[in-house]
Backbone:
């Protein structure tokens, strides 16, 4: 008991010391009047090679928008650009552009509660920090069917198909025709403010249909994959939940930093091999409390309507 108490007191003392340090005179002065910032932006392509002669534009926040100003320039032969200037740390917005590449961007808040950057001798730390930004090439963008919206689920406790091409459910009075996936929703009937439980089970039906998780490219205007990997192992079931326990709300959908690459509408040959399929990319998928007696599924996807075309790079 005494040992546990001693460890707790030490941890509390350290936490208070760090808090006091970050809220000390240096930090508060930088928050009022601005502290010097030196940061190196490093632009790299998908293969990790430097992207030179890219345009860099940086908004340096100064608490009030009218006091903010811009720093701009070009990346050098090493793909780097040095940002130097004064900021109060509330926002530092960086954008990097070049013809033939998707824009890369990052918004930093140096004063985010609980993870404030330190200030020493009037300088934000770490001094000369390096920020790598992904410059992805524009390869072959095509027209894809897109949906990014919260859509009411027609019924709960029963399986309902969703047509990604028609952007609608397959149910009485709805416009969906071919199910790219099916969902079954359970919901306690409460809106989001008082929701206790909601769950959406997703399944992909038919031989060959399914999904796999792929990494997003964080910081790029094109965060997805260029093409579906047809050799990947495709899973067939996924579950999203939203719940409140002991007053704390949590939800789960597509994992952070991931997206779902989907194969659907599969047709097989006489040997059971896939001879035709459609591919799509789901960036967001989760269940919410609803309104008017309906639960709401939030989805963000890109669907390629051309069979066997694995291209998922949208215009």
Residues:
């Amino acid at each position: 008991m005494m040992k546990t108490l001693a460890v707790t007191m030490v941890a509390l003392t350290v936490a208070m010391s760090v808090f006091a340090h970050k809220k000390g005179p240096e930090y508060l002065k930088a928050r009022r009047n601005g502290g010097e910032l030196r940061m190196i932006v490093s632009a790299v392509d998908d293969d990790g090679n430097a992207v030179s002669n890219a345009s860099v534009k940086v908004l340096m926040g100064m608490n009030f928008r009218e006091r903010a100003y811009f720093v701009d320039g070009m990346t050098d032969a090493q793909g780097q650009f040095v940002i130097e200037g004064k900021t109060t740390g509330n926002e530092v917005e960086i954008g990097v552009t070049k013809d033939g590449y998707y824009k890369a961007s990052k918004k930093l808040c140096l004063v985010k509660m609980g993870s404030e950057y330190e200030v020493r001798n009037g300088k934000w730390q770490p001094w000369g920090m390096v920020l790598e930004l992904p410059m992805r090439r524009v390869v072959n963008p095509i027209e894809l069917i897109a949906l990014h919206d919260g859509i009411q689920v027609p019924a709960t406790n029963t399986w309902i198909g969703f047509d990604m091409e028609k952007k609608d459910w397959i149910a009485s009075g709805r416009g969906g025709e071919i199910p790219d996936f099916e969902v079954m929703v359970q919901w306690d009937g409460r809106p989001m403010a008082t929701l206790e439980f909601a769950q959406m089970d997703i399944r992909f039906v038919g031989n060959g249909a399914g999904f796999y998780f792929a990494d997003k490219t964080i910081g790029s205007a094109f965060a997805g994959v260029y093409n579906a990997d047809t050799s990947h192992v495709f899973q067939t079931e996924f579950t999203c939940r939203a719940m409140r326990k002991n007053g704390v709300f949590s939800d789960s959908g597509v994992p952070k930093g991931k997206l779902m690459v989907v194969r659907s509408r599969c047709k097989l040959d006489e040997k059971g091999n896939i001879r035709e399929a459609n591919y799509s990319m789901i960036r967001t998928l989760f269940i919410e409390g609803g309104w008017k007696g309906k639960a709401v599924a939030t989805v963000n996807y890109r669907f390629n309507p051309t069979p066997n075309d694995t291209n998922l790079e949208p215009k």
The first helix runs from residue 2 to 22. The helical segments are 2-22, 25-33.
